[in-house]
Amino acid sequence: MGGLSGIRPTRERLTLSAGTELAYLRAGDPAGSPSLLLLHGFPNSSRGFRDVIPLLARDAHVIVPDLPGFGESDPLATPSFAAFADAIRELLAHLAIGPRLLYVHDFGAPVAFDLAMAEPDLVLGLVIQNANAHPTGWGPGWEATRAYWAAPDEHNTAAAMAHLTLEGTRAQYDSGLPDDVASALDPAQWAEDWRVMSRPGNMRTQRALIADYGRYAQRLDAIGAYLREWQPPAVMVWGRHDAFFDIAETLSWMEDLPRMQAHILDGGHLLLETHAEQAAPLIADFVRGVAMRR
Predict the structure, then answer these.
(1) 104, 112, 126, 216 — which has fewest CB within 10 A?
(2) Residue-wise burial string across 104-126, b where 16 or more C-beta atoms lie within 10 A, e elsewhere
């Protein structure tokens, strides 16, 4: 992507209490700016934010971890979204991060809500990008996964895990996109995701998270109650061609957060791969507004 210049991140590492290492990027002023925690989804890593970090770091202290088993972070012995949230808590404590904005996207959503609902007073706001927090987001494409959650037998397991291939990884990038939008994608990105996914221990992480996402689905009523009660300031940047998260999900978010800013862009599930230049200023404006209200 071109046109987004600003502060470049540094790569750092933290040894967690479990003995594994968590890799993360950091950029911006930790003293004079609000903290913004960017949480990636499947199948990528902190690399998915590469085109927005420089601009966002002008107005925020940006922290971008590779979740365990993704990017350069080690896998956990027992991976789950709760364990991921504990790892991120260790990172936030290590960096002495208090109030923060949370980026809510895909597999990052269960982690973000674990953090937010445990300490709602520390949530300055939410940046929502193609994240399911309501049943409306799971369309027909989720039938195999939901069948697996209900009955994890051999047949249903194979069907639910069928996307854990190179082609399935690519589909997260280009499925549902118009040809002219898809033409802007860089094949090196999904090739790198697949390389990382294929490392020892990482495929086990992916399989565990598919199962654990079913437990996240069981928390949706509580998550909706949190949103309606606490009304965190929020901005949405959503790829309308997402083949996995139904567009109806955007309306459910708006019903829970009626003051949310909502921007529906001409991208897909991994919106920032094609629309970083459009999304980053919208997020930055929101961050500045939060900073002014502090």
Answers:
(1) 216
(2) bbbbbbbbbbbbbbeeeeebbbb
How far is residue 28's CA from residue 8's CA, in Å, rounded to a whole number?
8
| Residue 265: both structure tokens together | 């862009």
C-alpha 100/C-alpha 85 separation (Å) is: 14
N-terminal to C-terminal alpha carbon distance within the chain: 32
- Burial (CB < 10 A; 0-12, 13-18, 19+), residue 168, is middle
- In this prediction the pTM is 0.96
Q: What is the pLDDT of residues 219-251, one digit of tens each?
A: 999 999 999 999 999 999 999 999 999 999 999
Residue type, 138: W
Place of tokens 């020892």: 200
Bond from prior residue into 43 cis (ω within 30 degrees of 0)? yes
For the stretch 196-221, pLDDT in tens is: 999 998 999 999 999 999 999 999 99
pLDDT in tens, 13-66: 999 999 999 999 999 999 888 999 999 999 999 999 999 999 999 999 999 999
**Average of per-residue pLDDT across 186-203:** 96
Give me the phi and psi of 241, to 5 degrees please: -95, 15
